[in-house]
């Protein structure tokens, strides 16, 4: 029977055709194997000749992991995907697959902290330099380009201030200078943003976040064109060995099944809490692209179909008082890795004595979260 083609993300993550190889099992089996053998030596030789697509050794391909990779590629609209043991393993492999000694990178200034450290501190020992630019300003990025620029690294929106880049403009700039583009798309997930359709070469996700959704897994994925991902497979993927294990892949698939459902609920909860905060006089700035007050809201609407539930606000209330406020919160736990079912708070000082508060709104009843915020603000007489 020929399968009906669909663009529905809900159907893509939920539906599997009957698989007689596995007795019609509804969920894909866990192939907990390091090694796969062959009936004849000729078959082994043929598999080794086509290692990128063969099941030989789990440091390369594993059926359970491949099932997840194929689903993620389809969900993102890419030709190929490769899963890694962490988001940083995926980012590092993607970056290193595009540059070599003596090259130059242009990177948005507000990118994920460890990704910035990779480019700013680690790669310099290979004579790979990075210029960090304001991603809102294409001209600044153009002025940062050098003859040896080989990569433009994006994160839209960024991790703390939630600033966007115009993906089509940056993709066009990269193609003009013969560079690759990579974007960290974790905030919007594959449900709400499709960077490949805007000309971006590779998308990386921290699967630890929304794709897992249960705060019990660590993993990452790189998605893009088959030609580039096959090259990455032979080099950074196999040589560094930062592979995702089959049991983790099985649990990630479980999280993926409900991803669209969770993202719509998280978007709804996040916007409700953000609208409450937006109306408080002691909050001087909200950083949430889904709010009409966000200066890039129209760009958000043009290249995203929805929003995550991670955002920040800024206040002049002193950090000492804000720590007391955070400690009074009952439904917001204190932590940094978001994307699960639980709400979180994380704060840091800005150079101008503002305090920036990053909230992750989880799956709790949003009115309970708002009441929690109210009582905590009342406790410090905000």
From TrEMBL:
<keyword id="KW-0413">Isomerase</keyword>
<dbReference type="InterPro" id="IPR015421">
    <property type="entry name" value="PyrdxlP-dep_Trfase_major"/>
</dbReference>
<comment type="similarity">
    <text>Belongs to the trans-sulfuration enzymes family.</text>
</comment>
<dbReference type="Pfam" id="PF01053">
    <property type="entry name" value="Cys_Met_Meta_PP"/>
</dbReference>
<dbReference type="InterPro" id="IPR015422">
    <property type="entry name" value="PyrdxlP-dep_Trfase_small"/>
</dbReference>
<dbReference type="GO" id="GO:0008784">
    <property type="term" value="F:alanine racemase activity"/>
</dbReference>
<dbReference type="InterPro" id="IPR015424">
    <property type="entry name" value="PyrdxlP-dep_Trfase"/>
</dbReference>
<protein>
    <submittedName>
        <fullName>L-alanine/L-glutamate racemase</fullName>
        <ecNumber>5.1.1.1</ecNumber>
    </submittedName>
</protein>
<keyword id="KW-0663">Pyridoxal phosphate</keyword>
<dbReference type="InterPro" id="IPR000277">
    <property type="entry name" value="Cys/Met-Metab_PyrdxlP-dep_enz"/>
</dbReference>
